[in-house]
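quick one before i forget lol
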Amino acid sequence: MGEAFLLIVRWLHAIAAVTWVGGGIFYWAVLKPALRTQDSNTFMARVAGPEFGQLVGVAMGTLILTGSILAVDRLSEQEATGTYGILLGVKILASAWMFAVVLARRRPRRGAESQGSSKTAMSFLTSVNSSIVIGLVVFFLSDMLRFLIERNLAQ
């Protein structure tokens, strides 16, 4: 593939990832606590969620498209080892988990949910907090993948 095209695809992939994870951190650390205060604006609460949801939707689509292009490009290179393929698979699974968290939170909840430790575990696994943690893990895996390719190019 053309180097200029791949540069643009990598840039779009990075921007989408930073937007999603950075937006999640902003929501968790700034917006959510601000909306809990007595003086919180209900209009802001109604608007911020859907706006952020749209941003996440665009980021998800961008990540899927650009990630597919980048995976095909990297896996077709001689420097892509078995270790690289395994780490890429883990990164893809972690990303899929993040996508599933978003999609699960968008579905309306029906009926009474079970109580207890399973509910608590599921609540964390499908929370904004877990999405942020997983996103940070995905960033780390990206750096590991880049390190592997650069190390193999240097040899």
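fyi The longest helix spans residues 3-36.
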